[in-house]
Design brief:
By secondary structure, the protein is of the alpha/beta class. It has four domains: 106 residues, 3-Layer(aba) Sandwich (Rossmann fold), CATH 3.40.50.2300; 172 residues, P-loop containing nucleotide triphosphate hydrolases (Rossmann fold, 3-Layer(aba) Sandwich); 76 residues, Helicase, Ruva Protein, domain 3 (Orthogonal Bundle), CATH 1.10.8; 68 residues, Arc Repressor Mutant, subunit A. Helices cover 51% and strands 9% of the residues. It has 20 helices and ten strands. The strands form three sheets. A five-stranded parallel β-sheet has the order 5-6-9-4-10. Strands 1-2-3 form a three-stranded parallel β-sheet, sandwiched between helices. Strands 7-8 form a two-stranded antiparallel sheet. Helix 4 links the parallel strand 2 and strand 3. The radius of gyration is 29 Å and the shape is elongated. The N and C termini lie far apart (80 Å).
Length: 454
């Protein structure tokens, strides 16, 4: 029987290892785990049911298929109570064995995926705990606690770098879905023509390059939460499909005709004003209201300066550990004053970057003023940009009526132009001053046709 099963399963592409007794099976499983175990109920020695118990003790998620010529009700119940995945009755068909093993492998791999996602999520949450003692952040914490148990969609808004993904993870962690996957998707990082395939999956041959079936991220997140960052960048056709997922709790993979049901909580985030996007026709109004059932607005770091010190100390501990340093968390009054008076266009993410650099280059066990970035040591650079831009925009006479969007565009162009002037045309440095990533700044420069500085 062992030889027959090895021939059948090897022919189907599986790697098969054999054990003559239950004792040998237990010893083999103690050395390494297997996707599927096929085991006879009646064996010399300890017997199949006892061997099953021992394997389940070692691995509670083990996929064990019991084979028996006496598939009585009592035998089946006993096997299931001891943790068996299923019962196969002899004599069996070859196709039946291959199908049951394939299903067992799929279940095992799905569980491994869930375990990996849970572990990654847990590590991330522990490492990047939300830090804040200001009143504004206390309000956010209270709101997270209230919305976490519900299934309702959540829309997190705030400037870039304020910690929107951390809040989304906190909502998931405090919810009944915490033991299921948390899947994060940055809608602006995935090319628009590939995003639907990533979210909803596709069948083999659905389009050029679809050489195999691909499971979409909504299916991966089934039972858990999916975090859609930069939701405002979705194409109109993708917005329609997302609206259907929210309304019907189902989606159809590309190339498929049968919808797939899913139970996924959607948490979305954006750093742009979706209300304005709705007014200009860029974003669907019905989708906006579906997403913003529970809105959470994160304050910028400059609105919660009292959080700068605890955040800085948190990042010092983090980068001390990562770089084997022992830099003191006690900051001098001069360093703390500069940190608390900086504008932080990049918010918490920028503060983390500032502290990481300071920890790495600190010549002693103390962060000095010289360890800080030039724009932090000389805040007048950014102040000049902001004040000049504010001054130019204040010349607008609104008493006769203005086009709001034209004025916003003019302000953006002026702000970008002044940042480029201050940095000698260096886009990366200008992006840091403005709290933008380099790609976003480059895109705006092209959109507004801002000439490069010679």
């Amino acid at each position: 029987m062992r030889d027959v099963l090895e021939t059948i399963l090897s022919g189907a592409g599986y790697k098969v290892e054999l054990a003559k007794t239950g004792e040998e099976a237990i010893e083999a499983y103690a050395q390494k785990t297997f996707d599927v175990v096929l085991m006879d109920v009646s064996m010399p020695g300890i017997g199949g049911l006892t061997a099953l118990e021992e394997i389940i003790k070692m691995d509670s998620e083990a996929v064990v298929l019991m084979i028996t010529a006496y598939a009585t009700f009592d035998t089946a119940i006993s096997a299931w109570e001891k943790g068996a995945t299923g019962i196969i009755r002899k004599p069996f068909q070859n196709e039946q064995i291959v199908a049951r093993v394939a299903r067992g492998v799929k279940n095992r791999r799905n569980e491994e995926e869930r375990q990996t996602l849970r572990q990654a999520m847990t590590r991330s949450v522990k490492r990047d705990a939300i830090i804040g003692r200001s009143d504004k952040m206390e309000n956010v914490f209270r709101l997270v606690e209230r919305v976490a148990p519900a299934r309702s969609t959540v829309l997190i808004t705030g400037e870039s770098g304020t910690g929107k993904e951390l809040v989304a993870k906190a909502i998931h962690e405090a919810s009944p879905r915490a033991d299921n996957p948390f899947v994060a998707v940055n809608c602006s990082n995935i090319p628009s023509d590939l995003l639907e395939s990533e979210l909803f999956g596709h069948t083999r041959g659905a389009f050029t390059g679809a050489v195999a079936v691909k499971k979409g991220l909504f299916e991966v997140a089934d039972g858990g939460s999916i975090f859609l960052d930069e939701i405002g960048d979705l194409r109109p056709e993708t917005q329609v499909r997302l609206l259907r997922v929210i309304q019907e709790r189902e989606f159809t993979p590309i190339g498929e005709t049968t919808p797939t049901k899913v139970d996924v909580r959607i948490i979305a985030a954006t750093n742009v004003d979706l209300k304005d996007a709705v007014k200009t026709g860029v974003f669907r109004e019905d989708l906006y209201y579906r997403l913003s059932v529970v809105p959470i607005e994160l304050p910028s770091l400059r609105e919660r300066i009292e959080d700068v010190l605890p955040l800085a100390q948190h990042f010092i501990r983090k980068y001390n550990e990562e770089n084997a340093r022992v830099v003191s968390e006690n900051l001098s009054p001069e360093v703390l004053s500069l940190l608390e008076n900086y504008y932080y266009p990049g918010n918490v993410r920028e503060l983390e970057n500032i502290i990481e650099r300071a920890v790495v280059i600190a010549p002693t066990d103390e962060i000095t003023v010289e360890c800080l970035r030039p724009e932090v040591r000389q805040p007048e650079l950014l102040d000049k940009i902001m004040k000049d831009s504010e001054g130019s925009s204040n010349n607008t006479d609104v008493s006769r009526g203005v086009n709001f969007y034209d004025e916003v565009r003019r302000f953006e162009i002026d702000l970008i132009r002044r940042a480029l002037e201050q940095t000698g045309g260096h886009q990366s440095r200008a992006a840091r001053l403005l709290g933008l990533n380099a790609t976003t700044l480059n895109s705006k420069i092209k959109t507004y046709n801002i000439p490069a500085r010679n």
